[in-house]
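Consider the following assembly input.
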Amino acid sequence: MDMKFGMLFIAVVFVVFVRWAVSLNPYSGMGKPPMYGDYEAQRHWMEITTNLPLKQWYFNSTDNDLLYWGLDYPPLTAYHMWLCGKVASWINPDWTALFTSRGHESYGHKLFMRYSVLIGDLLIFIPAVLLFCFRQKQLSHTQKVLLSCVLLLFPGLIIIDYGHFQYNSISLGLTLLAIMALSQGYDVLGSAAFVLALSYKQMSLYHAMPFFCYLLGKCWQQRWKKGFFSLCCIGLTVLATFALVWLPFLTEKDVFLQVVHRIFPVARGVFEDKVSNFWCSLSVVVKFRNFMSQETLLSLCLVTTLLGLLPSSLDLLFRPSTIKFRLALINSSLVFFLFSFQVHEKSILLPALPVCLLLPWRPFTSTWFLTIATFSMLPLLIKDGLIIATLVTSILFLIAVELGLQGISSDPTIGCPICMWSSKNLKWLPYGFFSVAVKSGFYTSLMGAVFLGVLSVTIPPPSSLPDLWPVLVSVYCCVHFLGFTVYYHQVQLMAPGPKQPTAQKGKKMQ
Amino acid sequence: VRGKMAAPVFFFVVATVTVVKLLLIPSYRSTDFEVHRNWLAITHSRPLSQWYYEDTSEWTLDYPPLFAWFEFLLSHVARFFDPAMLRVENLNYASFATVLFQRLSVIVSDLVLVYAVYECCQCVRMAGKKRPSELLSQPSFVLAVLLLWNFGLLIVDHIHFQYNGFLTGIKLLSIARILQRRHLEGAFWFSLLLNFKHIYLYISPAYFTYLLRAHCFTRANKDGSVQWGSFSLLNLLNLGVVVVGVFAGSFGPFVTMGQLGQVLSRLFPVKRGLVHAYWAPNFWALYNVADKAATSVALRTKLLTPDDIQQATMTGGLVQEYTHNALPSITPLVTVILTLAAMLPALVHLWRRPCTPRDFLRCLVLCAFASFLFGYHVHEKAIILIIIPLSLLAVEGRQDGQVFLLLSTCGHLSLFPLLFTQAETPSKVCLMLMFTVFAFMSLEALYGSSKKRPYSLCLLSPVETVYMVGLVLLQLYCSVGHHALGLTNRLPFLPLMLTSVYCALGVMWSWLRFYHLTLTERHQLKQS
């Protein structure tokens, strides 16, 4: 048996096993009528899309009660649900029967739903990650396999997709394919893939700004005619892909506007439940919902988000490079997560994807971020009964990082301006002082997370403050995320631009 | 040269497999889960004198006393999880805390296995002279993975639910002590093991012969045969004290209460059939099929009339009798005689050899083989008793490695029907694939593929390769094809029967191959 193939095979089978073992756990809203949870939402969409004509999918009607998990994702999700629904009704018509199947729960149906997630993952996300890892030319084969193991074991995504129940791996996988295509120079292909990701889940908009700036900046750098031509190519591809996916909904203006209205629900609150973003944490101190109207809030969110996007976008626009692009993806999605309107706790997966890609270069801080990102979803995971699975997969992830990123520098201080400045000017500071300081910071933060986690699981909150633990968790994580935003901005601004000799030759960057 | 392995590597192997076990917590559990919950309740809430009389549940206590004490110990921790599980009347009680506690108790008790595996890895002899840099060609690393990630142990303990892990640990510890020539400790751990679970009686002839030969006789002649004059009464006495001491500690209380008969009747129930609910892949599976074939031939040729046929259903979940129609029925006595006859050459061979610990290990494997193949009412799970000690030999010799690859693959595959729930199918397939691919890959890395045969798997002969491909096809047929052909209702037992019979062929072949290797080993040594 070929050794190289054998190792890769075992690694993939292992991550599939972990995914399947997590899927044996309960899903969101299991046995909780009348609304259930995301699992029922996806099943309901299968019911709607297979039973109603396409034009009615997004409209409220006697057959389609939008208040009961109405379809609010873009068309590609709807098509995917239609396909799954067809298979489901072929296996068992009861699973998708109109009205009567509401709240359907059974052993076989759970299996079907779990398999549908696994198949999507196997077709899109896992190949995309393998493609990414095997493109890292500086790594040996073993290191490539271990790196793909680490990336595929990121607990947040596994728990949300296979425990809570969603299809994030499809949109994230498409985004990853787009990133890969762009860094290989296939700009047209990449933009098409990203449009697909965007048409699967509107949350991919968090990543849109860097894509736009990178492609525009790259065309800008080229000679006038060539740049204009490639810009036209990309623009046409984007429009054509959009048109193709949205075609059935473009025939009538009303239909299209209704879909857009469903996808961007401005009428809903500024955040859902307890999210570790800026507004939610601020609302602990300032009850701004009491003195601000919904519209004021919306414009406030818009302005802060746009302001937050400016530094990373401008930097990328004028100095586009692959590494800056990836960092801008982190920065843009983090800014969106922290400051934008209508944020879910699960949206942290969007910044988590580009952070995963940074693991080979910044193993330490990326691991820190990914661990806190998983932890930030704790209140949701406790509600779903996924606490053991979360804990175990997080431990597995840390083991994998420890084992898999050996031989790749794990110095936590690389590229940190304070450390570089101090090593030049403060020679009396012992060597490795900052390394120790940052590492102890990591362990303190991890201990804090474990402490908060134990509190939330074991001790019931005081009756006057029923949301005490979730609020504490979200504030704790928000502080981290603000810190990471500053850190990643700094890393991006210092990263090398396109083909220009810079001061940081020593670093391994693509 | 001893092949020691870096401690961090061992730690990672242990850590990852522990995570896998923790991930399996929400899996399906068989009735054995309730069996052990009931034993927790019995030992916790009934006095010692009632332990072997209590029969509120149908799952009465039928393991030796030390296991009962083990449950007693666990029950005092269980109190803090959920005291309701400790009430005997709470039949089929399975709250979340109960499940968590029982699963964790298996995982924690597996630490014995971890320690024993570590000890065994210290005893591994290197095939080559110098220490290889590649991890996969370090025998101790390969052995650690083969033992700790053993597919059978993982699914039987952590999905199906049993406590084989720490029992296997004790067994490996006694083997490790014997490999280190610390005979008394080896004897101590093995007697302890017998008092935890009496299934290990199957391999006791090997221990008995070896300890008598190597411990009680201190010298051997030049040709390796025993020197009768070197008998040491002192050694026999200290061995006896150790063994009798352990048994007295375990059975003593029940003997003084006059309950020995009751305990033994629980340990050795006689009212069981020749084969278990579904057939273990052993000689009797082949015998039963031969009987079926002979019956149908006899019906065609009018040698038997339909009135003579006693129908037996083979699909039920519980144990049932299976009566033979054309071939003579098998009584327990016949199986005992056949088992002993199958062991005898191995034991005699062990006695006449210089009797090194490696010879003992081979004899141990052969005893496990004999009782698995010819024993009365053998469980399919007993295949683990063969595969585990064979792993030790597999990393030390190329030909043993070949037998191991064949036996572990078909033996583990025969465990598939144990987990019949659909949600567990991906779990078992993934675990099996990981273990098997690793075994093939690592043993090839250890021994290299000296002569490359086209169209055959490494280390295996073409015929064996065809057999392996057959295993995959069989599994595909059982999981998909049988249902697709619409035979599920007409021939419900066919997939199980095919699996048993096909795997039985593989196990028989491995047995013959291994027996041949053991008996001819001396010649090879002389020649080389």
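Confidence is low (pLDDT under 50) at residues 312-320, 523-528 of chain B. Ask yourself how this observation constrains the way the partners meet.
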